[in-house]
User: Fold this.
Amino acid sequence: MKKYLIVNADDFGRSLEVNRGIVHVFKNGIVTSTTLLVNFDAFADAVDLIKRFHIPVGIHFNLTDGRPVCSPSLVPSLVDSQGQFFRKFVFYRRLLKRRFRAQDIERELRAQLNACLNAGIELDHYDGHHHVHALKGVAHICRSLGQDIQKLPLRRISWPHACQSALSKIQQSAIHLFEDKRRTAAELRTTFWGFDFMDQQNKHEAFNAMLDNLQPGIHEMMCHPGFESPEYIGYYNAQREREIDVLCDTKIAQKIKELQIELVSYRNLSHDHTLQ
Assistant:
């Protein structure tokens, strides 16, 4: 089997600057796919860019950042006193303690999905902001929604790789341990990368290590490119431009060719049943 690599840019729709950065690496670099955040002001701009440049896209289900698409009064267990989603680690703790109502999660995620479909977006996969789509208590709801539209494949969080840093191994292990492991027959079998690329200061080194360790099969590389946003969008802001440097580096592109790695998207692979 050949080596296939999906390079997916998360957070499309987070800000106008993130949107411009993702389009830049799609047109001038090795990014093959993106996932769309629905609940921010730059969503409409992202939809326009997806259609204009024909970018393969999935939905980035979100329960940990910003305001819900639904009125907060309709999803009370998901929001704080200001009507905002609980931040990532608070969300994780509340999920472990079963503080969320399943009907609130389903209502909000369905609203996010419908926002994409109503905007005329043809989705080809799904994942989750801060990996919420993979977690027990949420995954089965995402899977049910994904099955509603052409059995969408999802991002799987695999066990960490030996070449990763200690920090990224801890993060990836934690998500993997709490991942809902149930699968459907139609799901693509993928190996996940990206924690190291996000955490390491030397992003060229992290990306090269990933390429050197790819085995035959289908791999997904999570990335977060973007131009720096003037407003607060979380701690990971200026770092996004350093990702752009790697993803548009001609030496990286040449190495991918030399290693005979085929760059693909979920859209490509979902129609190739020999790879499932």
